[in-house]
Design goal:
The chain has 205 residues and is of the alpha/beta class. The protein has one domain: Rossmann fold (3-Layer(aba) Sandwich), CATH 3.40.50.150. The protein has helices at 4-14, 18-22, 25-35, 70-80, 119-129, 147-163, 172-178; strands at residues 41-45, 62-67, 87-91, 104-110, 130-141, 181-189, 194-201. A seven-stranded mixed sheet has the order 3-2-1-4-5-7-6, sandwiched between helices. A hairpin with a 4-residue loop joins strand 6 and strand 7.
């Protein structure tokens, strides 16, 4: 990730208050509905403090939880002890994934794809590590579909990148389709800004 050090420092600083600042019944409901679809060996990108852990089905074979921030992972670690499946925490920039091909049945992310500077590269990596028949499940904020809100998001994008570590105008469903995925948008909230989606590869890497 081109801005990995910036994002790492940003989220290391935010880690202590991150759970309180981002607690949301709406997000929890969306995560529960989406991550209930996860199965097999799962890779989560941008796991943060582990806010998603409670929303996975207990039948997973394993969960590999990856984040660029060591402080976030340190706070996620105690939550892994309550899970009925094995969890491995990995600190790494997830623009390039440090795993062999065909390692996972499901890749997940909750508000983690919007900070990647080269989405096509990441989505190629996601295809590479997915097994045949695998899926990507993602909860993301995207560029608003409303024209004026979209223009506002374009204007705010540099501030989002600097202070939040992500992009306000990322067209994630469109970028996934360009990268060779079939995309189903399962739910939209906040006038289309927040989407839950399922993507499956349609061609080989």
């Amino acid at each position: 990730m081109a801005n990995a050090r910036h994002v790492q420092r940003l989220y290391d600083r935010k880690a202590s208050g991150y759970d309180a600042a981002t607690s949301s019944q709406m997000l929890d409901a969306l995560r529960s509905g989406l991550f209930a679809r996860a199965s097999g060996d799962v890779l989560e990108l941008g796991v943060g403090t582990g806010a998603t852990f409670a929303h996975y089905p207990g039948t997973l074979h394993s969960l590999t939880a990856l984040d660029v921030s060591g402080e976030m992972l340190r706070r996620a670690q105690p939550k892994t002890l309550r899970l009925p499946f094995p969890v491995r925490l990995v600190q790494h920039d997830f623009q390039t994934l440090p795993f062999p091909a065909a390692s996972f049945d499901t890749v997940t992310s909750s508000l983690g794809l919007c900070g990647i500077p080269d989405p096509a590269r990441l989505f190629g990596e996601v295809r590479r590590v997915l097994r045949p028949g695998g899926q990507l499940l993602a909860l993301e904020h995207v560029r608003p579909p409303h024209a004026w809100l979209g223009i506002a998001a374009d204007g705010l994008d540099p501030l989002f990148e600097r202070f939040v570590g992500c992009h306000a105008n990322r067209r994630t469903p469109h970028l996934l389709r360009e990268a060779g995925f079939t995309v189903d948008v399962l739910e939209r909230r906040l006038v289309g800004i927040l989407v839950a989606l399922r993507a499956t590869p349609t061609r080989a890497t």
